[in-house]
Amino acid sequence: MPDDDDILGALRADWQRQTVDTERLYERTQRRQRRTRLLLTGKVAATILALPIALWFLWLAFAGEGSTFALAGGVLLAAFPLMLLELVGLMKLARLGAGASPEGALRAARTQAEAALNLLWSARVAALLLGAGAAGLLGLHLADHATAAGTVPIALVWLGVAGATWLWQARRARQLNAEIQRCDTMLSELEG
C-alpha cells in the first residue's frame, strides 16, 4: 500500500510539470483586444452622439416641451465627461497586447484583466446615473410636472437597466478578480 506522502508528492510533481497553455492564453488576450477595439468603436459613436442629443433635449425643454427633456438632457450632460474618461481607459486597454513568451502572455492577460476591472467604475456610475434619473422622473411626476404615462414607464426601464448593470458589473468584477488571481498563481509558479 503506497504511503500518503508518496501520493501527495507524485500529485505535486504532476502539478508542477504542467505547462501553461500559452497559445490558448495568447489567443484569448488577442480576442479580448479585438473585442475591446470593437467596443471602443461603439463607445466613440455613442459619445459623439451624446452631446448633441443632450443639447437637443435641453433645447426642447426650454422650448416648452416638458421638464422630462430637461432631466434627460441633464443626465446626458452629466454622463458626457464620464464617457470621455471611459474612452481614454478603453483606448489604453485596446493597446495592451500579448507577449510571445509564456510569462509575457500571462503578464498581458493579467494586465488586461486588471485594466478591465478598473474600467468597471463606468458601469457603476452609469447605473447610479440611471437610478438618479429614474428617481428624478418619478419626482417630476409626483410634483405634477410630468404625466405618469410619460415618466413611469421610462423610470421603470431605467431602474431595470440600472439594476441589471449593477449586477453585471459585480459579476464581472468577481470574474476578473479570479482571473487576476489565476494569473498571479501561474506567474509565481513560473518564477518558482
Number of strands: 0
Structural class: mainly alpha
As for the number of domains, it is: 1
Percentage of residues in strands: under 5%
The radius of gyration is 24 Å
- Major sheet, described briefly? none
Q: What string, H for helix and E for strand, traces the elements in order?
A: HHHHHH
Separate helix tally:
6
Low-confidence stretches: 1-5
What is the typical, i.e. mean, pLDDT?
A: 83
Helix content: over 70%
Q: Can you give a write-up of this model?
A:
It is a single chain. The chain has 192 residues and is mainly α. It has one domain. It contains 6 helices and no strands. α2 runs parallel beside α4. The longest helix has 44 residues. The radius of gyration is 24 Å and the shape is elongated. The N terminus is likely disordered.
